[in-house]
Task: inverse folding
C-alpha cells in the first residue's frame, strides 16, 4: 500500500536508534509513522513510503503509552519550581497543538491535559484519552519543555487513584462536598451548639492554635480570629481539611505530584480567615500542596469577563495571594476563562507566580471557527444550544439573558461569528458543549460530533491560529511576557 498526499507535521520528525518517527495527516486521519526496529512496538499497519517500510500507527491510547515509554519528553511532569503554570483544558482533545504554539516561546508551563469528572462525562471521554490527546500534540509539535496533566476537581479516593494510575501529575482535590455551607449562614447559637458537640481534645488543641493570636502575613496584613469566626471556620472547613489530609496521606505523599486543594466550588466567598485556617491546618498536619484555590469575591461565570468590582477583587486577591506566599504555595485561579479585567491584577499581585485554569474558551474558539466557515452547522448548534440551555444549567451557574441574543434566523452568515463577542450568547454556547457533543439523532448517530470533528480537521490551521490569538490574549493580560528575572514584576501591597 502506498500512502499518497502525506502532509508531514514538521516538528514531529525524530530518530531513535535505527528508527525514524514522524506524524502526518493522511486521508485516513492523522497518524504516527515509524520505521526500523521500533515498528514492532506499535499497533498499526505496514505501508511503503518512497521504497521504505513504515508502520502507520493510529493515534490510540495504547500507542501513546508506547510512545511515552520511548520518549521521556512525551510524559507529563510536575511543575514544581515553575512560576507561571497554566491549565489549558481541551474539551475536544484537539486544541493542545494550538496551546503549545501559544506558550512555547514564553516562560509558561502548560498543563495540557486538564479535565474534571464532570467534563469527562459531558464529553464521553476518559482520563486515558484526555492524556493521550496531549501526548500526541506534544510529539507532533516536538515540544520538549515539559507539560502537566491535571485530574481536575476530583472528589474521592477512587477518582484520585484512577487519575494517578493514568499518569496524571497534578491532582486538584475538590473539597466542596466536605464544606459545610449550612454552617456559613447558620445563627451563632446554632454554631455554638454544634461546636460544643465536637470532641474536647480537638477543640482545645485548635483553640490554643488560633484564639488570642495574631498571624502576621505581610506588611499590615495579619489574620486574627474572633471566637465566633473561629468556631464557624472549624465547623465549615474542618471536615474538608480531614478529607484532604486523608487523600494526601493515602495517595499523594511521597509522589512527584502537584497537589492542589480546591475550596472554590462552594456557595460562599472564602474569607482570609477561612483560607488561612484550611492552609494552616493542612500544613500543621504535614500535608504538602502546590496550590490552593479559594473562592474569590465577585462572579467567575464561564467564558465571559469578571462580574464585580475589580478594585474589590484586588483587595481580596491581595490577601489570598499573600497568605499563599507566606506558606510557600501558589494561589490557583479557576478562571472560567476570559477574565481579562482581573488578569493583570493576578499577574502583578503574585509577582508572576500563580496557577490559572482555563478550558471552555478553547471550545468557544472552535465554535467561532465553525461560525465563520460553516454557517449551516453553526446555525443548527446555536438553535440546539438555546433549546437545551435548561439542561446545561443543571451543571453550570450562569445568569445570561437570552432575550438579548439576536434571533439566529435574522443574522446573515457574515454576522454569525459576532455571537462569539456577545456575553449572553457566549455563556449559552459555552455551557452547552457537552450536550452538543453528545446529542444523538433518532437513529442513534451523533447529531453534531462527527461534523464538528471533521470540520475542525479540515480547518485545523484556522483553529490553531484562533487559539494562539485568544489564549495569547489571556497570557498577555496576565503579564506572561514579563520576565520574572528582569525585575519588571514588582510586589505591591
Ligand atoms: Zn474550580
Result:
Amino acid at each position: 500500500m502506498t500512502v499518497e498526499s502525506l502532509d508531514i507535521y514538521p516538528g514531529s520528525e525524530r530518530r531513535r536508534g535505527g528508527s525514524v518517527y514522524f506524524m502526518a495527516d493522511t486521508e485516513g486521519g492523522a497518524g504516527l509513522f515509524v520505521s526500523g526496529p521500533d515498528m514492532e512496538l506499535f499497533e498499526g499497519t505496514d505501508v511503503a513510503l518512497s521504497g521504505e517500510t513504515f508502520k502507520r500507527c493510529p493515534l490510540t491510547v495504547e500507542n501513546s503509552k508506547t510512545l511515552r515509554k520511548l520518549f521521556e519528553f512525551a510524559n507529563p511532569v510536575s511543575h514544581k519550581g515553575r512560576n507561571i503554570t497554566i491549565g489549558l483544558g481541551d474539551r475536544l482533545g484537539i486544541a493542545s497543538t494550538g496551546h503549545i504554539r501559544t506558550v512555547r516561546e514564553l516562560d509558561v508551563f502548560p498543563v495540557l491535559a486538564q479535565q474534571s469528572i464532570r467534563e469527562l462525562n459531558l464529553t464521553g471521554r476518559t482520563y486515558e484519552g484526555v492524556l493521550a490527546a496531549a501526548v500526541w500534540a506534544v510529539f507532533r509539535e516536538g515540544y520538549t519543555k515539559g507539560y502537566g496533566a491535571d485530574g481536575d476537581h476530583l472528589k474521592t479516593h477512587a477518582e484520585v487513584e484512577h487519575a494517578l494510575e493514568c499518569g496524571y501529575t497534578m491532582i486538584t482535590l475538590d473539597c466542596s462536598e466536605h464544606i459545610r455551607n449550612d454552617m456559613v449562614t447558620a445563627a451563632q447559637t446554632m454554631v455554638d451548639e454544634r461546636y460544643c458537640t465536637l470532641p474536647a481534645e480537638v477543640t482545645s488543641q485548635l483553640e490554643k492554635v488560633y484564639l488570642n493570636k495574631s498571624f502576621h502575613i505581610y506588611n499590615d496584613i495579619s489574620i486574627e480570629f474572633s471566637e465566633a469566626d473561629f468556631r464557624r471556620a472549624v465547623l465549615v472547613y474542618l471536615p474538608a481539611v480531614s478529607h484532604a489530609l486523608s487523600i494526601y496521606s493515602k495517595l499523594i505523599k511521597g509522589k512527584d505530584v502537584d497537589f492542589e486543594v480546591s475550596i472554590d466550588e462552594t456557595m460562599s466567598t472564602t474569607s482570609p480567615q477561612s483560607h488561612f485556617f484550611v492552609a494552616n491546618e493542612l500544613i500543621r498536619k504535614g500535608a504538602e500542596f502546590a496550590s490552593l484555590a479559594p473562592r474569590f469575591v465577585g462572579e467567575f461565570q464561564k467564558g465571559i469577563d469578571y462580574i464585580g468590582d475589580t478594585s474589590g477583587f484586588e483587595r481580596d486577591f491581595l490577601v489570598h495571594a499573600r497568605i499563599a506566599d507566606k506558606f510557600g504555595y501558589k494561589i490557583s485561579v479557576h478562571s472560567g476563562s476570559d477574565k481579562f479585567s482581573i488578569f493583570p491584577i493576578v499577574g502583578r499581585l503574585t509577582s508572576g507566580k500563580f496557577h490559572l485554569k482555563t478550558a471552555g474558551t478553547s471550545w468557544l474558539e472552535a465554535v467561532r471557527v465553525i461560525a465563520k466557515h460553516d454557517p449551516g452547522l453553526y446555525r443548527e448548534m446555536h438553535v440546539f444550544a438555546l433549546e437545551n440551555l435548561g439542561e446545561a444549567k443543571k451543571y453550570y451557574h450562569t445568569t445570561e439573558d437570552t432575550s438579548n441574543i439576536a434571533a439566529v434566523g435574522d443574522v446573515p452568515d457574515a454576522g454569525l461569528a459576532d455571537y462569539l463577542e456577545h456575553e449572553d450568547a457566549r455563556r449559552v454556547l459555552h455551557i452547552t458543549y457537552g450536550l452538543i457533543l453528545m446529542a444523538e439523532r433518532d437513529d442513534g448517530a451523533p447529531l453534531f460530533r462527527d461534523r464538528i470533528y471533521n470540520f475542525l480537521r479540515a480547518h485545523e490551521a484556522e483553529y490553531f491560529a484562533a487559539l494562539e490569538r485568544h489564549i495569547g490574549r489571556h497570557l498577555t493580560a496576565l503579564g506572561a511576557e514579563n520576565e520574572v528575572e528582569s525585575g519588571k514584576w514588582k510586589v505591591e501591597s
